[in-house]
Amino acid sequence: MIAAFALLLTFQLAGEALRVALHLPVPGPVIGMGLLLVYLIARRGPSESLRTTSGNLLQNLSLMFIPAGTGVMLHGARLFDEAGPILVALVASTVLGLAATGLTLHFLTRKGKQEGSR
Predict the structure, then answer these.
(1) pLDDT digits (tens, 9 = 90+) for 15-29
(2) Alpha carbon distance 45, 54 (integer Å)
(3) Which of 28, 52, 113, 115 has the most crowded Cβ, counting Cβ within 10 A?
(4) What is the DSSP letter of 23?
(5) Residues near 13 by Cβ (< 8 Å), separated by ≥ 6?
(6) Predicted TM-score of the model (pTM)
(7) Has residue 56 got a pLDDT over 70?
(8) What is the pLDDT of residue 17?
(9) CA 20/CA 32 separation, integer angstroms
(10) Shortest CA distance to 73 belongs to which of 62, 84, 61, 65?
(11) 52 vs 44: CA distance, rounded Å
């Protein structure tokens, strides 16, 4: 389990190092996940220890949200003061996300029908 956890942290560190070195606007852990994906594709899948370790981490993922929940509780008054802009941002981002998804699906299904009729 320690070796698998060290492997995960190594890829996260590599992603963070690339982000800093190349001044990328993407979070280091996201780059590390991409590197881990390439590694797993090259190895043709994860080892059993990596599979077990990542499964255990995912089972306890909800614990990672406790600090964020505490921060929300500590800044409740500020959230209440900024409720209007937050609500507008949430609604607008939801509508834009749904519209982008719908348009993408419409485009892809229409394109698939056109290729199928050939």
Answers:
(1) 999 999 999 888 888
(2) 13
(3) 28
(4) T
(5) 28, 32
(6) 0.56
(7) yes
(8) 94
(9) 13
(10) 65
(11) 17
